[in-house]
Amino acid sequence: MRNLMLVLLGVVIGVATLGAVWANVANTPDDPDGAVDVRIVLERLEDGRVEAGLQQRETDGGWGEVLKPDYRFLAPDAEVNTPLHSSVIVVDTDSRYETVANNYAAYLFQSGQESGIRFHERFGRDEDLPKMLCINDLNDPGFDQYCDGIETAYNGPVERMEVTDYEDFRLELETRLLEDREVRALFATSLPTGAIVDEVREATGRFVRWSYWIELIDPLLPSPDNLHCVISHGSDEDLFWGLSAETSVAAAGMLGINVRSEVYLTGAEQAAAVRRCAADGAVAIATTLSEPEVLKPAVKEAIEAGVPVISFNSGAEQAAGVGTALHISLDDYEAGRVAGNEFNDRGIEGHVLCVIHEPENLGLHDRCDGLEESFVGTVERWSMTDRETTVEELSARLRQGDVSAVLGLSSSIGTQVRSAIFLTRRDVQAATFGFSRTIAEYVSDGRLMFAIFDHPEIQSYLAAVGTLLAERLRIDPIAYFNSMQMLIVPTIVNAEEMQRLLDSLTAWQE
Asked: Which of 28, 282, 305, 503 is most buried per CB count within 10 Å?
């Protein structure tokens, strides 16, 4: 494992220039083993010499201190066409891959120490502890660190059994347990060896104390070439999906994975994108289920091809039927109920419009269902015929005079709802789902009663994490997650809370 890189500074005297300093860097930005950005710093001194140094880019994007080798000066009378080299500079270039591997190795060692202590305590005496076998499965490299930890903490003798062939191991362990009565403790570093230990204990009648290590998730970073797809419905003009895509990109960088983030207007286009991702070799896919029946065949094909699929945002109630491993979203039905109860508490009566901006989106209908269930008045599901004319169409509906309040189901629609109310000058209250600077201002100053956040950043980030978990799981993710749901509990965001958010939007820059 490479922990250090040696960077040589060379000084070359040119015909028309004082010189150039260059670095021999083993990595390139495309190297999956990590790379380091460096630059050369040259400074002409008053005595005519040129001083050379090296700077390395820090994790925050800035440049660190100038590293100066012992031999770093170019004399004004240096001979031309003669390469000169500085002394060596050592630059720390541990990549994220190495850092993760090193951290996990340290964790295994510490865990081995804890196991050694537990075995020691269970035998209950400090001297003459029985022999322990630490079974190191070489088919899953790296677990010798666990045995190292056991050896340092268990005060009795520890012997390693290194396994490459499981059947050979079975026979060897049977012989040891039958013939070596000093062995009274076992630890297996993998599930296959653990299963064999359990079977051999039964077969030989030697029920020695034992334990095993279970690693459900591969702890190391995947190859940066592994493709993870996050596919959603909606318009790229909708702020929700803008924030969602932005978060997917951020998640890719933070998680160290390759994420393809795509947004489509129709379920058919989404289904085509799912098929395309599977054909392109995706290791995992996340998709919304705004039109579950349209997506279902494509999801099934991906799963049958060995690509785990999770879902997020719309389609919580249909996710299990579609076959996705897990679903991440706002609890849309409960969110509608929360909105209806808030209307009731604020004294809203009569007729409320529930504005559905994506008529095929079942998640939006769930919100209106919840609103109908809790609101004491009547609820009308209203959709525009053209997104470009939402304000005009909604204004015409409000002028009919029978509407008491309007609930927008996204931040973009929320601003348009407010614009329509302003144009008609009607005494109509409004609230919305979603967050934006404009929505925060409207709620803060009372132009909107409240908002319910739908958290695109959480949904998209967890969707990216979900694809990584599904790909890294060492057991069947479909069976293990078993169509579980992670639902965000909706809450009301009032004027005071919105003002705090407005204040915090720029506070980090101060």
From this structure: 282
**Coil, strand or helix at 142:** coil
Within 8 A by CB and 6+ apart from 333, the residues are: 366, 367, 369, 370, 373
Which one-letter DSSP state was computed for residue 67? Answer: B
Work out the number of other CB atoms within 10 angstroms of the CB of residue 490: 23
Task: Locate the domains of the chain by residue range.
Answer: 4-94, 98-212, 227-331+457-489, 332-456
Q: In the beta sheet, which residues pair with residue 53?
A: 41
Location of structure tokens 């290590």: 213
Q: What are phi and psi of 4, to 5 degrees?
A: -130, 145
Q: What share of the chain is helix, strand, coil (3-state, %, to 5)?
A: 40, 25, 35
Residue 338 CB neighbours (<10 A): 21
The residue behind tokens 């770093």 is: 72
DSSP state, 349?
-
Fold of 227-331+457-489: Rossmann fold (3.40.50)
Tens digit of each residue's pLDDT (9 = 90 or more) over 243-261: 888 898 898 888 889 999 9
How many whole angstroms from its chain centre is CA 265?
25
Strands (E), 213-325: 227-233, 258-264, 284-288, 309-312
Q: What is the value of pTM for the model shown?
A: 0.76
Q: Rounded to 5 degrees, what are φ and ψ at 203?
A: -70, -35
332-456 homologous superfamily: Response regulator (3.40.50.2300)
The answer to whether the beta carbons of residues 230 and 259 sit under 8 Å apart is: yes
pLDDT tens, 11-63? 222 222 223 333 333 333 344 445 667 889 899 999 989 999 888 877 667 88
- Annotate 390-411 with DSSP letters as a single string: HHHHHHHHHTTS---EEEESSH
Instruction: Please tell me the CATH code under which domain 98-212 is placed.
Output: 3.40.50.2300
